[in-house]
Structures are given as C-alpha cells and as structure tokens.
Amino acid sequence: MKFRYAVFFMLIALAFASCQKNTVSSIPSISLQYFGPLNGSDTLISKTDTCLLRFTLADGDADLGNPLPGPPYDIYIDDMRYDSAGFVGYFFPAIDQGIEDPKNGIQGTCEFFYYPSVLGLAPTLTPRNGVDTVYLKIYIQDRAGHHSDTITTRRIVLLP
After folding, report:
1. Is residue 143 exposed (0-12), middle (13-18) or buried (19+ Cβ within 10 Å)?
2. Does residue 31 have a pLDDT over 90?
3. DSSP codes joined into one string, the chain
4. Is CATH 2.60.40 the classification given to domain 23-158?
5. Which residue of 34, 44, 93, 101 has the lowest C-beta tally within 10 Å?
6. What is the C-alpha separation between 142 and 157, in angstroms, rounded?
7. Which one has a higher pLDDT value, 90 or 82?
C-alpha cells in the first residue's frame, strides 16, 4: 500500500515539475545597456562622431510590434533638450511571427545609431561654453497597450 502512495506522490510531483510557467511579465520591460559615442570616449562626442543607444527588452506574452502606420508605435524616445517635442515614435523591424510564443515570451536587444546630423548641437538652443548636452528617455509599448518603465540615459556632452 505504501508503494502505491509513493508512486502516486512521485507522479504528482513529476506533473508539477514538468509545468513551466513563464516568469517574464506580460508588461514589457527594458534595460539600458549603453548610450555613448562609438569612438570609445567616455562622455564627449564631436560633430563627426556617431552615438549608439542599446537596450534590452523582454515581453512575457510576446506581443511586440504594433501595426504600421501607427500610432501606437513600438519605441518612444524623447530627446530631453527639447521641452515641447515630447516622445517620438519608432517601429521595431518586422518580427517573425514564428518566434512569438506567449508561453515563453520574447527577449531581444535594440540598437539605435545616432549620426552626427541627427544628434548635433540643437539649433534652437544657446549652448553654454560652446557645448551642448543630451540625454534621452525611452520606453516601449506592446500591442496590448502595455508600457514598459521609462529609462533615462546618461548625459553626453556634444562638442561643436
């Protein structure tokens, strides 16, 4: 009799162990990996340097990628030098629907390259001592309308 109970208990334990829950939230999350110049400088960037923004993302139900033409967009970035501009929307590249799995979620890395013409000195601002500083605020939104937390980059000094 004890053997039956032991077998029954082991089968129940095996059933629970085989159930894997998705531990990633259905609300998307992002984490800043890097924001800075590609030239290896710590905080200074000249008008000829390219800047890289890299962040990781995760979404537990894998519903990233809003339909074109939007809004809503997938990625929202705010250049904090401009008070009135607000967040500008961007789309993820096409995500293969074959990897969208609500049970396992989706994770990835997103990179933006800011070329000098985009990240140059703000024409409407009067920089102090001939330099300007820039930092960004970023969040993502999934198809269900869930917003991730907003991340803030460090400040980069832009040289004339």
Report:
1. middle
2. yes
3. -HHHHHHHHHHHHHHHHH-----S-SS-EEEEEEEEETT--SSEE-TT--EEEEEEEEETT----PPTT-SS-SEEEEETT-TTT-PEEE-PPPPPGGG--TTT-EEEEEEEEE-HHHHS--TTS--BTTBEEE-EEEEEB-TT--B-PPEEPPPEEEP-
4. yes
5. 93
6. 32
7. 90
User: How many residues does this entry show for the chain?
Assistant: 160
- Rounded distance, CA 123 to CA 117, Å? 11
User: Any idea where the domains of the chain sit in the sequence?
Assistant: 23-158
Q: How far apart are the first and last CA of the chain?
A: 84
Provide the token pair at 1.
């009799």
Nearest to 87 by CA among 148, 38, 144: 148
CA pair distance 140, 147, nearest whole angstrom: 6
Mean pLDDT of the chain: 77
Q: Are strands 136-140 and 151-152 parallel, antiparallel or unpaired?
A: antiparallel
